[in-house]
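Support request, please re-run this one:
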Amino acid sequence: MKALQFSVSIPRYIGLKALGIMGRRLYYRGPLATVKLVDIPEPPLPSPEWIKIRTIACGLCGSDLNLIFLKDSPSASPFTSFPCVLGHELCGEIMDVGKQVRGLKTGDYVTIAPHLNCLARGITQQCAACRAGRPANCDNFARGSLAPGMFTGICRDTGGGFAQFLVAHQSQVFKLPPDMAYEEGAMIEPLAVSLQAVLDNRPSDGDSVLVIGAGVIGNLIIQCLRALEIDCTIAVVEPSAFHAGLAGKAGADQIISDGDIFSAATRFTGATRYKPMLGKDILMGGFSKIFDCVATSDTLNTSMRVLDTGGTLCVVGIGHDVKLDLTPLWLKLQTMKAAWAYGYTQVEGEPKHAFEIALDLVQAKKIELSSMVTHKFLLENFSDMIETNLSKSVNRVVKSIVFFK
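Re-run finished. Output below.
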């Protein structure tokens, strides 16, 4: 089968970091490319608890692009194995079912929660994170019966969504409603990411919320806030007029497009602005909750300065090597929390997975996904997809999806 396969070695890493300044195409075209279209065998079922899925649609995630262009922190490398087939935002049809699989059958249309935790790895004594209902934060991503890999798409044993077939453990699999569009099925994973960020850092009625970045995750955070009927006001920082317009349709009350977050925060929240002897201004008062979907040194430092006393900064974006001035953190008793993937949340006294809640919200038409899929590609045109996503604002890209014939 054809597959978009990622691989890197230390010599290739060094070579691309040295030569990549000559052009980004070197990362996905030519002899040093980190990704190539290859012919590989279909992955076998690792155990009787696994199923085989025929991929119908798979979305390109920002984390895929970071991996292709070697922008991820090397700290995650122990939890990845090469060569691997990229793609974890997917939907497909079950083609084969292991003998110990329950509740699933061939012909079912499904999506997957891609994280390869204790259950998937055949580890019977589950780690603390898995026992606590947060399997995406498992301690054992480099142990058990599978090669290292935090999730499907960066593990060499499971395959990924950018190939016609992949395998998944039954605990990863969620059935799709029969009337759900394929592009919606492929978007459940990023929706679950955004939903969990909101559930873990839920604003109260009357709060002022700031969302930094109105790409896929930022837009879905806005939609989740509205879908959960939280009576808060929402401001969004987004320089792209196209993405800002979509954020307004999603439910944002104010768009900050000129980069002047301090003035907007003062107007929006009634905070008082102070000018230090050196450096950026600082507000007393400010936003109650901030969801930073960019997470650079600049956005994180600005967030702490416009966050209210006792407020929470939810770090949704995956930045690394950031430099922080922690003065606002202690001065205003703030909380900084990471948002990573999803798990189980208590709903009416029962644990419910974020994928289940996300599917319910889409079925109830409280979340709109199909219109966010702005670009569709065939797998053999992967380089066009990458180039299109390198200029998202110009090309008016929200989500790109590969569809299989």
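Residues 2-189+352-403 form a domain with the Quinone Oxidoreductase; Chain A, domain 1 fold (CATH 3.90.180.10). Residues 54 and 165 are 5 Å apart (CA to CA).
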